[in-house]
Each structure stands twice: as structure tokens, then as C-alpha cells.
Amino acid sequence: MKDKMMRNNNMGVLSLLAFGWASLFVANAQPAPTPQPNKDAAKKSKVILPKKPGEITKPETPNIIFIVVDDLGWGDLGIYGQKLIKTPYIDKLSSEGMRFTQFYAGAPLGNASRCAILTGKHTGHSYIRGNRPASLRTIDTVIPMFLQGNAQYENIALGKWNLGGKGSPGEPFKKGFRHWLGFVDQTHANNHYPTYVWRYEPGIKGINGWNGDVQIAANAKSQRNSYSTDLLTKAALNTIRIYKPDWYKNYRPFFLYLAYTAPHANNQLAEKAGNGMEVPTDFPYSGEKWPRPERNKAAMITRLDTAIGQIMAKLREYKMDEDTLIFLTSDNGPHQEGGNNPAFFRSAGPFRGIKGHLYEGGLRVPMVARWTGKIKPNTVSNEPFAHWDVLPTILSAARVPRPREIDGISFMPTLLGRDQKTRHDYLYWEMHEYGSQQAARKGDWKAIRPAPGKALELYNIKRDPSESQNVARNNPEIIKDFETYLRSARTRSLLWPITQPKETAGR
């Protein structure tokens, strides 16, 4: 009985400290010491656990960490050809797993992409199809809701949400996340030195529901000491620490949805200062004779890369590599906000367009996956997949059946080096911020309708990845096929009709 009470008390303490609340708000602008990419952190820091009454029984399903960063272009990473910005840890993550060359965002803007990731539906069927403020509905089912029940996952969300604010049916803790720390809306998230964050932690007196705004003292009174990337990384590291396998609690797998704001611009700051690429220091690019926004952007990405290295090192420290499946992607293509020039680093790679465009530069995004012992190291997939495929893939890892009412397919066979028998006939997108637009891809062909009533543009992605040659006039049968598909690919939406709105993107 005493041992049982001790375990229960420990779990209560663990729940309270799951994200290291006290340490999150310490004034510290510098990232943690940088781990060495080619050394095993476990050898440096041996984990010493208390004597245990028996062996740890691990579940057969992995921990899952899904990292989505904000406005990181396909060409911003070394593994996709970037030469100027240093990303050694993401490159190492790729070398230890699989890199995808034809992975697509759910939309060319963040809110709709995040909805596609979590619901498994493309923008013709998802509820949130653009960046206008909106909330997930009660009927919308997302990844952590499937992982509860028999899968028995602990579900944690950190960072940018944008799918429902306070009082809405889309609040994170109403969507299966047992623990949550972050930003509910765009404006709040884009300040990289937030003065407060929102938190939810169940079962603790005074925090059962929204805890209101948790103040970050280090950033009070216009101070700039606690950077959001560092804050979220610390919370992620504490999450791994809390859910590491040890003897005094029942070991359960966790799903961590980690949504960084970087390298999104602080547009409000840009309006005042002309440079919204907000970062504590432009190291290691301080000596470069680049425009300041570009030095800052590069520093934001490298700082983010260091954070990924810290997460990898923590998993090695606790010998959790083989127990954890990691994904890293971006919500859409690179932006030109906050004084940033996406052409400077060729952030879209060889592709046309940027964030907000249905051309490849707005939709083609990085995707890396690592699962030590399961995914063969240093492999590359050229198979087209999209954000709405994330949900069924994660459910496959968790051994949860795929729901029928989604558009996504599991790419787990590809990850495991098996035959990918199920493939997409079409990929579909909508974009509503610059006038309603549609796009679809079938095989090597991609069609784009730049506005309602406009003729379709047609590109062969394999021969013309930069989409420089519109070959619609030469392929009337292919155009006819796309016209038929586009009429059937979407359900009616009152919030996002196919019209010509006057709104602008700006998010």
C-alpha cells in the first residue's frame, strides 16, 4: 500500500512538473550548451536510476515526437541543398533516418496546414481551410483523440496552436491533449519574447482548465530575456525527462506535438523597426556582410537546429532512440515577411513561389523521419505525400486503425522500407487569402486555378519542377480530367467558399 501511495504521489509530482514550469520562466536568453552531432550523449551522461523492483515493461508502440516549424523553406536546410545556413543536427537527424523530397504542406498557409496535419483531411474536406481566425468544431477528431483509449498515449502539445482559442470547441485540451503550453493565436505566437503563455494541466488544484496567462517574468516591462524557441525546447526536454522509462511509474508512450514559431517573422515588430526576424543574437553569422534580416533569419534557423540537437541528445541520454519516432516538417514554404528576402538563401530551393502560393515553393516542404532500428539510416523517399498523411502514419505506428473519414494514407510502409501499395491518385489544395484558388497533382502533372473562373495552368513537375512552362494548351484531355476532379474534390464551406474575397494573407 505504501509503495502504491508513493507511486501515486510521484505521478502527481510528475504531472505538476511535466514541463518544468518553474524553470521555464527563468531569464535566460542563451540556448543550452550545444551537443556535439557526432558523439553519443549517453556516453557522456550515464543515467543512474534507483534500484528497481523489476524490469521495466515497455509498450510495443513508440513514443512519437512531431515537430512542425513555421515558414521554414524546402531550401533552408543543408539536406536540401542549403550552403550558407548551418543546420548540422537536422542534417544528422536525416542521416539517421529518412528524408522526403516530394512532401507537401496541407496548404500554403499555416492554420490550414496544421488542421490538415491533425485531422488527416485536405483543404477540400477540412473545416479550417485558410488563415482567417476559426476554431475546430466539436465533431472534428484529431490525432491525440485517436491515441487515447486502447493506445494509452500521454498527449502533450507545446507551442503554436491557432486552431481554437479560449472558450472555443477547438481548445487543445478539448482535442485530446492532456498537457498544453503555448500560444493560441497568431499575434501572440509571433512575438518571440512573449510576456505570457497559456497553460492547461488537469487534475491539479487551481489549474483544472485554463490557467489564464502564465506570466514570463524574464520578459516583463519590455525585457527580452526568454526567447520562445528556447522556452519551448526546455519544455520539450522536460517532457522527455518526465516520460523516460523508469521503475517508479507505469511506463506509457507519449505523443508530443511540438510547434515552434521560428523562423516566422514578428510582423508587429517589423512595422516599427523594419526587421521582424527576431532573435537574441545573429551568431554565428555576425561577421557576414549580409542584410541584417538575412543574418537574423539564418541565426533563427541555426538556433532552431541546435534545439533539435538538444532533443536528440536527451533521447540518447535516456536510451530512448529505439523507442521514439521523430518527425520534422514545416507548415508551408518560406515567407517574405519582416524584411526577409526568400531569394537571398534560395529558401524555396529550385521551385517557383513562396508562402501563400500554390506553386511548389509554397507547398513543397521539408520532411524528415527517424526511428532508430526501424527506419534504415540515410534513406531518401521520392514518393509524393502530404500533411494529411501524417495522421494515418502516426496511428499506424501506434497500432490504431485508420479512420474511414479521412483523406490521408499511411506512409509507414515507405518508412520501414516496404512496398508502398497504397498511393494517392490526386493531391488537392485550396487557398483563400488572395482570392480563392485551387490546385491538384496527379502523377507528374499539376494543375493550378489562380482564381475562380480562370483557366487552369498545367505543369509537368518531373520535367519542369520550377513550373516555368504552362503546357495547358497542348494537353486538353489532361485539363479536362483535372476540371472534373476539381469539381468533386471539395465539400461546400460557408467560411471558405470559392469566391473572390478582398482579404489579404498577412499571417
Quick recap of the structure?
The chain has 507 residues and is an alpha/beta fold.
Gross morphology: globular
| CATH topology-level fold name of the largest domain | Alkaline Phosphatase, subunit A
- Give the domain tally: 2
Oligomer: single chain
Compute the separation of the termini in Å: 55 Å
DSSP, total strands = 16
What number is the mean pLDDT?
87
Low-pLDDT stretches: 1-19, 21-51, 205-209, 500-507
Care to describe what's here?
- By secondary structure, the protein is of the alpha/beta class.
- It folds into 2 domains: about 400 residues, 3-Layer(aba) Sandwich (Alkaline Phosphatase, subunit A); about 60 residues, Arylsulfatase, C-terminal domain (2-Layer Sandwich), CATH 3.30.1120.10.
- It is about 25% helix and about 15% strand.
- It contains 14 helices and 16 strands.
- It has a 10-stranded mixed sheet. It has a 4-stranded antiparallel sheet with strand order 13-14-15-16, covered by helices on one side.
- Helix 4 crosses helix 10 and helix 8 runs parallel beside helix 10.
- The termini are far apart.
- The N terminus and C terminus are likely disordered.
List the helices and strands and how they pair.
Layout: H1 2-17, H2 21-24, H3 41-44, E1 63-69, H4 88-95, E2 98-100, E3 103-104, H5 110-119, H6 143-147, E4 154-160, E5 179-183, H7 186-190, E6 196-200, E7 210-215, H8 228-242, E8 254-259, H9 267-273, H10 292-317, E9 324-330, H11 360-363, E10 367-370, E11 379-381, E12 385-386, H12 390-397, H13 412-415, E13 427-431, E14 437-442, E15 445-449, E16 457-460, H14 476-488
Parallel strand pairs: 1-8, 1-9, 2-11, 3-12, 4-5, 4-8
Antiparallel strand pairs: 2-10, 5-6, 6-7, 9-10, 13-14, 14-15, 15-16
